[in-house]
Each structure stands twice: as C-alpha cells, then as structure tokens.
C-alpha cells in the first residue's frame, strides 16, 4: 500500500497499466489497492478516464536521510513510523527499552494522538508533523523550568522562518495565529524530576492540512497561512535545530533568559482572562510570566502566580 502511495506522491497522473507494471500486479489489483489506501490512510485519489490516477494533492513523505541532511549540525537519531498510536507514547516505550537518547520519533499518522488534559490531537496521514523528542535531564528541577514555554518559542521561530509572520504564543503551550491554533506542545516526565529523569517533548504542528471535520476548535496550518505546500522533512530539521539551540542556552542560563522574549510573543499579554482549574475560575489580567514560566495575573489588584498542567486559560467574554 505504501509502495503505491510513493508512486503517486508527486500528485501527477499515473496510468493503471504503469502502476501495475511497477507493482507487478494487474490493473484490477491496482484498483483494489487504491481503494484500500483511501480507506486505511484517509488519502483522496482522483480517477480520470484516459489519464489514470492521482492524489488530490501531492504528499511529501518523511525521510530520515533528508532530515539529517537538512540538519547536519545535529546527531539526533530519527525513528519514523507510518502509523503509530502516539509519538509521545512511542518515545516513552523507547526510553523504557533503554534506547539511547536524544531520540526523535515521528509518524505519518497517529491513531491516538493527544494534547494537554487528554484532548484528542487530530492526526491525518502525511499532512502534518507529529514529533516527539526524548531527552535525559540531569541537574534537577532547574533544567525543567519553563521547558514547555521554551519549546513554544522554538516552534514560533520555526514558523516565522517559513513565512507564518502573524504567529504568537498562548500560555502555557499553544501556538496560535490570532485565535486559531497551529501547534501545541505536550511534555511528559519519567523518573525523579529532582534528580535524573527523562522528558518527552511532544509537538503537533499543522503543516499541509487544508480541511478537517474532526478538529473541535479553531485551527489553521502553514499551508493555509502561506498558500505554499511545505516540505515536512525540512520543517522537522528546522524545528530540531531551533529546539537544540534554545535548550543549549536554557541549560546554562535557565528559563529566565527567555522571559522577555516569551512575553513579547504572548498574544494575551495585558488581556483580561479567566483561568480555569477544573470547574473553578479565577479572573484577572495577564501581567506576564515569572522566571520559572508560571503565569502572573493581576487578580483584584494583587499579583498572583499560577502553574500546573491542568490549568486552562481563556479570554474573557467582555474583551
């Protein structure tokens, strides 16, 4: 099935006869494989009598050699799956099997992709980036402070480099264009964060997705914002290079070195918001963040700080 997809990935017409010859099967077998491919992978194939078959849009498949060639300064191994439950889960499995880290895990599709607070992350085949970076962390809690916000900055830099100029951040780990989500970050820890542990940095980035009925919030993609299809291998290389650069400074100087940069890119800086913890809401005005990445709010004239994975920030209805 994937061999057939690779033959069609250029988005041009290919005759059933040529496809059959390349696969060593009959034209009717090609047709059956096309139907299976559409059903299993969710890709759309157009059929035109006298011209053959083509994908509704070209597809660039992930390739380790291309990624490493585009990021020659990095020596991070890359695992690529055609389909996986979740790249974060796969990275955790690799850590538990004592696979050496750093390690990048990528997938063409996730069947159980997830974001913060257990929300589903819609993961169509071959359109976006589903990325997890497994790292070993030494030096205690300082090396973890503000880490998800730091990765958000790396994602933001990557998007600006490819022409998404209006992109910004929403505390703690969403990347938005206006109110539309283009990327999210999910961190998961294994081990003792006060001593030596592992962290999996998960990034979901909407790249070439043009339509979806499954996403339950406003969203956008690199393609929608720029009108240009992106080479996902080059984007992965850019993202990895930027994450590595931010991590290097963070290791020496801590998250405080990035506080000003992060606040400059926070779309809700100075805005009236509601901060939810379960069913409880705290209303205030965003002042910024502290040197550990906690959110600072003016609550009735008093500055208060908030941090934790179960918090949800929303703009007030009256703003």
What is the element layout, followed by pairings?
Elements: H1 2-8, H2 16-23, H3 27-41, E1 45-48, E2 52-55, H4 64-70, E3 78-81, H5 87-96, E4 103-107, E5 129-137, H6 147-161, E6 167-170, E7 174-177, E8 180-191, E9 197-205, H7 222-226, H8 232-253, H9 259-264, E10 272-277, E11 280-289, E12 295-299, E13 302-306, E14 311-315
Helix pairs in contact: 2-3, 4-8, 6-8
Short structural description:
Helix content is 30%, strand content 27%. The chain has helices at 2-8, 16-23, 27-41, 64-70, 87-96, 147-161, 222-226, 232-253, 259-264; strands at 45-48, 52-55, 78-81, 103-107, 129-137, 167-170, 174-177, 180-191, 197-205, 272-277, 280-289, 295-299, 302-306, 311-315.
Number of helices: 9
Number of domains: 3
CATH topology of the largest domain: BirA Bifunctional Protein, domain 2
Task: Work out the radius of gyration.
Answer: 21 Å
Distance between the termini: 51 Å
The largest β sheet comes out as: 7 strands, mixed
Overall average pLDDT: 91
The share of residues in extended strands comes to 25-35%
> Shape, please?
globular
CATH class of the largest domain: Alpha Beta
